[in-house]
Description:
- By secondary structure, the chain is α/β, with parallel strands linked by helices.
- Helix content is about 35%, strand content about 10%.
- The protein contains 9 helices and 8 strands.
- The strands form 2 sheets. A 6-stranded parallel beta sheet has the order 2-1-3-4-7-8, with helices on both faces. The chain has a two-stranded antiparallel ribbon with strand order 5-6.
- The longest helix has 19 residues, at about 240-255.
Amino acid sequence: MTTPAIFLIHGMWSTPATFDGLRARLTAAGHVVHTPVLPFHEHSPDAPPPVELGQIGVADYIDFLVAEIARLPAVPVIGGHSMGGFLAQAVAARVEAPGLMLFAPAATASTNAVAIDSLRTLSHVMTRGSWWKSPTKIDPEHARWGIYNGVPVDVADAEIAKLVWDSGRVLFEMGLPWLAKTTATRVDYARLKMPALVIVGAADRITVPAIARATARAITGPVDYHELPDTGHWLWHGAAGDRVADLALGWLRDQFSGGANLASA
């Protein structure tokens, strides 16, 4: 049985700790798991944000991840959560990954879906002066409503305390691609012919299910799509976390141990 290496990309305001539970399950199954830290995300949540973080763009994140993969002995299966799900697609198109795992993926320029829930979640960030060229961090109230809905209060509060600063420029380029002067949010879906797993919570309020559905339709390879009922954006707690890990491990077994590809979405 082949157990490919896995490369997991965390989301906005997050760190690789997002994947602690999933990484443990994947490692126990024999996979080598890489969880890179995006530039400037290693700083303490309580520390002032680096000024440079406000200016770093989507292309910088993509170039950083491509360089990280170039150091590995072989191109791994690439996965990502939220913003990391967008970055996973862009990187996979560059490096011809053997597989793609997208967990509540953020939109690319061609899979964007304007949603009231997303706007409400991001309203506090995107109404502050010069947010598009400054470091940003979501406030606890909107994080609880739009990211950690359905998660026990104590767990949500612990996760919120770990959130770090991120780039306003990246949020601008991803959230308003028609205004941003970049091509970095455009993904060449003709190059995404590898098998893909797409998982989203049906109650996701920031990267809404419409984005995941559009992503599954855009990918040109075989797609295994799952929309989890009564589940929000935070896929990593309790029964939802167990279900996501089960789906990921099952998909990896099917794709890399001689099993047939699952039906396309």
